[in-house]
Design the sequence.
């Protein structure tokens, strides 16, 4: 973790996350153009088979339902509303980053607009590598929106164009992945959200 200075993973609101996420938020956290771009990326990467959507909510942005979709998030009401989900797990990854799944259980692990809230991200990405099958893909997408009281300080202080490199380093430090790919899928306009993506395949 030498890559990250002291205080990088501190937050303005260090209170336990279940309280903050107790109320269901059945809304999109990025605009419609960005939502469509996430779905297009999943299609481009061939996300199918058995899929795990981490830090999930009521929608997973997949254009086509995979064989199975396990959604893991903080709010049971949101997860229950996800129409593609075949299994649902309520878990606070900041309290316990261990994923309750067997080794090599999934073909893809997704994280849409939530990686900035992880306070133990390398531990989470170690687990992502463990539960992915060889050749499976970890896909993180994010914009410039967030709940600033819950995002880690290092993320908030980094220029937007440096944030994909942070997520790529999470993969590198976790080990078990091929070299991550970073890409800006959408540029910001005065009326539209930007979208960045980072993905890496399981070695």
Sequence:
């Amino acid at each position: 973790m030498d890559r990250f200075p002291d205080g990088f993973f501190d937050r303005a609101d260090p209170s336990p996350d279940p309280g903050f996420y107790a109320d269901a938020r059945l809304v999109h956290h990025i605009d419609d153009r960005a939502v469509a771009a996430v779905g297009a990326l999943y299609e481009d990467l061939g996300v199918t088979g058995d899929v795990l959507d981490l830090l999930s909510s009521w929608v997973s942005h997949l254009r086509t339902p995979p064989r199975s979709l396990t959604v893991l998030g903080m709010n049971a009401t949101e997860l229950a509303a996800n129409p593609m989900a075949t299994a649902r797990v309520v878990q606070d990854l900041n309290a316990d980053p261990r994923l309750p799944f067997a080794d090599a259980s999934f073909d893809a692990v997704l994280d849409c607009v939530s990686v900035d809230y992880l306070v133990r991200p390398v531990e989470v990405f170690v687990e992502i590598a463990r539960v992915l099958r060889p050749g499976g893909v970890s896909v993180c997408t994010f914009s410039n929106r967030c709940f600033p009281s819950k995002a880690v300080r290092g993320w908030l202080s980094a220029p937007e164009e440096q944030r994909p490199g942070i997520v790529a380093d999470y993969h590198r430090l976790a080990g078990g992945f091929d070299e991550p790919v970073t890409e800006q899928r959408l540029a910001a306009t005065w009326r539209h959200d930007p979208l960045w993506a980072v993905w890496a395949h399981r070695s």
User: Anything to note?
Assistant: The mean pLDDT is 94. The longest helix spans residues 32-44.
